[in-house]
């Protein structure tokens, strides 16, 4: 429902404060919902008009139970769209609604201005509704169970995309012209048999045939966008290809949000804190605000709170650029007291954080601005499980290791990077995938189920090249059984061992 008059006035004031600070956002529409509606919208990923699927019902049940048992509560939800849509929980206190509105305007500014969101659809509300309509049409045509089963398979593969591809042209455009022998030109027809003798023409035709045979290996370069490769080359029916395109399109829409989680939440938290403490907060609301804000940015032991890390790093950047704590002179200073007292009063902090908000994602944000001083101040460390003691313990507080661990977790959302190597592996029409091994083996149960779904879509056997327990492996699934093969003995049939899927 629309905002009550009291909250409409509150929104107008918060929006004015946000614009005064320099935030730039699309028109933002707030709607008031109860907890049940909020859980329903959240279960659909913010789009209640999406296609029907059991996964959304499962998410709704989980959210509802967590709310009923007091384990979690969704205060707000904001959608990257033009106009932006934001949902407020009607049970919130007025001070909470103020915090949420200020927080939402921070998100909306980030959606509009961060470079990683520039290729996302700004009419996703309409697009999601269109997706739902198309899927329902296919359900009416081929049956609910058939469509749902196919969507299940596609959703298990939705992370097999190239998150950087909207900004990089990896594929060379393919020529649609049929290649023919290029004859030497002559002005006189009677000279043609001498200029282009039959032996020459035949040799050129044989050369073109040889080039065509070499094309049986595709793609020319490894393809990280596995879903796009399947859309282009898998033997799918028209409705299946369309549904796969829907899953892929939605995966790319949500991708920047995963790539900028720390920055986005930190930016919104920074501005709700700034607006509330300097503009919007009344004396009677200070205690409630402090209680709720501290809960948002609280750092639980053994976990990473993106709100906390993001807001603290933005504050750190602003302070450093205000005081001039950057550049060659500062970096080469090795006196601790001098660096602590460093202050050139440059006043560049606000300008710098707006620049950071525009150009970075989480990986580049952490890689560029996380410093050893920041890690020490915020007590960051790497921990691990000690099998001898049966407890989790601190492994190290060394800055390089902390930074390396954090970046590793953020790269590709901590998920394995899989790419297509060959769509005609061993000239048998098999699909060969490659796992870019980064020191962590694939989970066997996930590998099995993913290969099963890939094989159904590809229609031919699927092979995956990876490393397991330090040994190079190729796993194959032909629709009935899995086979395991050492990569250093590829081609030697005697080294292939068939195993049951439950044994992998």
- Residues in helices, as a percent range: 40-55%
The amount of beta strand, in percent, is 5-15%
Terminal residue distance: 52 Å
Using DSSP, what is the number of strands?
11
The rough form would be described as: globular
Oligomer: single chain
Mean pLDDT: 89
Using only CA atoms, what is the Rg? 28 Å
Q: Strands of the largest sheet, in order across it?
A: 6-7-8-9-10-11
Largest sheet: 6 strands, mixed
* Unreliable residue runs: 489-504
The helix/strand class is: alpha+beta
Query: Helix tally?
Result: 20
Question: Could you characterize what this model shows?
Answer:
- The protein is an alpha+beta fold and 504 residues long.
- Among the domains are: 5-114 and 260-292, no CATH class; 299-411, no CATH class; 416-502, no CATH class.
- It contains 20 helices and eleven strands.
- The strands form three sheets. It has a six-stranded mixed beta sheet with strand order 6-7-8-9-10-11, covered by helices on one side.
- Strand 9 (471-477) and strand 10 (482-486) form a beta hairpin.
- Helix 4 crosses helix 11.
- The longest helix has 22 residues, at 238-259.
- The chain is globular and about 95 Å long.
- The two termini are 52 Å apart.
């Amino acid at each position: 429902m629309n905002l009550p008059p009291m909250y409409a006035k509150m929104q107008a004031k918060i929006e004015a404060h946000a614009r005064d600070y320099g935030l730039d956002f699309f028109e933002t529409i707030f709607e008031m919902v109860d907890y049940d509606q909020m859980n329903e919208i959240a279960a659909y990923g913010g789009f209640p008009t999406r296609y029907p699927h059991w996964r959304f019902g499962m998410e709704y049940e989980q959210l509802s139970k967590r709310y009923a048992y007091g384990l979690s509560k969704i205060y707000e939800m904001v959608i990257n769209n033009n106009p932006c849509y934001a949902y407020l929980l009607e049970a919130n206190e007025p001070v909470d609604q103020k915090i949420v509105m200020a927080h939402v305007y921070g998100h909306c500014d980030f959606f509009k201005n961060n470079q990683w969101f520039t290729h996302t659809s700004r009419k996703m509300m309409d697009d999601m509704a269109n997706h739902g309509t198309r899927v329902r049409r296919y359900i009416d045509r081929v049956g609910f169970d058939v469509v749902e089963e196919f969507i299940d398979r596609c959703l298990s593969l939705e992370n097999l995309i190239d998150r950087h591809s909207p900004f990089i042209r990896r594929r060379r455009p393919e020529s649609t012209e049929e290649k023919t022998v290029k004859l030497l030109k002559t002005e006189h027809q009677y000279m043609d048999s001498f200029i282009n003798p039959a032996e020459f023409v035949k040799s050129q035709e044989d050369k073109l045939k040889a080039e065509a045979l070499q094309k049986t290996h595709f793609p020319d370069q490894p393809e990280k966008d596995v879903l796009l490769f399947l859309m282009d080359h898998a033997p799918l029916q028209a409705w299946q290809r369309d549904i796969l395109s829907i899953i892929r399109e939605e995966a790319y829409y949500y991708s920047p949000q995963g790539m900028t989680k720390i920055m986005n939440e930190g930016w919104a938290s920074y501005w709700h804190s700034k607006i509330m403490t300097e503009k919007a907060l009344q004396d009677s609301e200070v205690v409630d605000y402090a209680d709720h804000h501290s809960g948002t940015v609280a750092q639980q032991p053994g976990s990473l709170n993106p709100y906390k890390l993001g807001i603290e790093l933005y504050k750190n950047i602003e302070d450093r650029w205000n005081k001039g704590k950057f550049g060659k002179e500062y970096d080469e200073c090795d006196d601790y007291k001098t660096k602590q007292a460093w202050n050139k009063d440059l006043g560049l902090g606000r300008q710098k954080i707006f620049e950071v908000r525009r150009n970075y994602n989480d990986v580049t944000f952490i890689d560029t601005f996380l410093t050893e001083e920041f890690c020490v101040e915020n007590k960051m460390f790497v921990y691990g499980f000690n099998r001898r003691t049966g407890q989790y313990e601190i492994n190290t507080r060394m800055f390089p290791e902390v930074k390396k661990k954090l970046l590793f977790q953020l790269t590709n959302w901590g998920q394995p990077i899989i790419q297509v190597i060959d769509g005609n592996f061993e000239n048998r029409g098999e699909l060969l995938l490659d796992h870019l091994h980064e020191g962590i083996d694939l989970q066997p149960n996930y590998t099995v189920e993913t290969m099963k779904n890939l094989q159904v879509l590809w229609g031919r056997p699927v092979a995956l090249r990876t490393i397991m327990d330090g040994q190079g492996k190729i796993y194959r699934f032909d629709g009935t059984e899995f086979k395991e093969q050492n990569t250093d003995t590829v081609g030697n049939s005697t080294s292939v061992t068939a195993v049951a899927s439950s044994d992998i």
